[in-house]
Amino acid sequence: MEYEGMHYEGYCIRPPSESDSILLQVTLGCSHNKCTFCGSYKAKRFAIKNNDIILSDILYASKHFQRQDRLFLMDGDALIIPQERIVWILDRIREHLPWVKRVGSYANTKGINRKSPEDLTELREKGLGILFLGVETGDDDIRQKIRKGSDSAHCVEMGRKVKDAGIKLSVTVLLGIAGVEISLEHAKATGELLSRMDPDYIGALTVMLIPGTELWEEYQRGDFQLPDEEGLLRELREMILHTNITKGLFFSNHASNYLPLKARLPRGKQEALNLIDSALRGEIGLKPEWMRAL
To answer: Can you name the residues that pair with 22 across neighbouring β-strands?
Structure first.
C-alpha cells in the first residue's frame, strides 16, 4: 500500500514565524550537533533524505497544502545540502508548488561557508528567501565553551554573506547562555556582533535547561547558574542598548522569555528600553514560569 502523508521523522522543529508554512523535511538532524545547550537533534544521525521521498512529500503538499504560500526546509541546517541537490529541491518546489512565495531554512556558519556568493544568489533566484542563523552570543569565550564551531568574526562574515546575496537574515541570540558572572559582558558583545552583522530580524530566546545536554550536566554539578528574572531582563536591556542595526525587528516574544517584546530598530529602541525599565521596576508583570516553554 502506497504511503499517504508527509514523511516526517522524529521531533520536528521550525522557527515561530514559520508556524503556517509547509514543512518539508529534507535532512535529518543537524550536521554540527555539538552545541552544549541544544538537545533538539541528539536522537538523530545527520543525513540528507532521499530525493524520491522529498519529491513524494512535495507532491503530497501540492494536493493538500494549497493555502500555504511559504515553505520551510527542515531539519537543522538544510543549507548544508550540496548545491546541485538543493537547486533540484527548489526547482521541484517551484514546479509543483508554484503558489509558494518564499522558501526558508535554518543555516549554520559551516553551511554558509560552503556556498559561494554565486551559489547563494542562485538559491535566492530559485526561491530561497530567508535563512535562520543561530548566533547565540558575540562573546568568543562563550562561543568556544558552548561549541558553536566559529568565532564572532566568522559568524558576522557569514551573516553578511547571506545579506549580500539578497537573502533575508533572521538570527537568534540566547539570554542566559553566559551564566551569571559575565551576563552583561555577553549581552554587550552580542549587541556589538548584531550591529556588525546587521540582520533583518533578531529573535532573543532564553536558555532552557534540557536534561541530557552538556549544559544541563554543568547545571547539575553547580558549574552553571542561570540568571534570575531580573538578571535576564538586565541582560536583554544591555543587548538592545548595544544593538545598532540599519533597519530590522528585534523580538523577545518566544515562549521561553519572561517579557514579550517587539521593537522596530532603530526608531523603537528607546521605547523597548523603557518597557524593560518598567518591568525592572515591577510595573509590568512577567510571564509565569509554568507558561514558559521551548
So the answer is: 71
Q: Does the pTM exceed 0.90?
A: yes
Give 49's DSSP letter.
Answer: P
- The model's confidence at residue 218, banded by pLDDT at 50, 70 and 90, is very high
By C-alpha distance, which of 191, 266, 275, 268 is closest to 233?
Answer: 275
Question: Can you say whether residue 265 is alpha, beta or left, with left for phi > 0 and alpha for psi between -120 and 50 degrees?
Answer: beta
Enter the C-alpha cell of residue 181. 558572572
Q: Calculate the average pLDDT of the chain.
A: 93
The C-alpha cell that represents 237 in the structure block: 536591556
Domains of the chain and CATH, by start: 16-283 (3.20.20.70)
- Calpha distance 238→235 (Å, rounded): 5
> Residue 70, class by beta-carbon neighbours within 10 Å (0-12 exposed, 13-18 middle, 19+ buried)?
middle
> What pLDDT digit, counting tens, does each position of 105-156 carry?
999 999 999 999 999 999 999 999 999 999 999 999 999 999 999 999 999 9
Beta bridge partners of 263: 250
Q: What are the residues facing 82 on neighbouring strands?
A: none
Q: Which of 157, 107, 150, 158 shows the shortest CA–CA distance to 129?
A: 107
Amino acid sitting at position 155: C
**Cα distance between residue 156 and residue 35, in whole Å:** 18
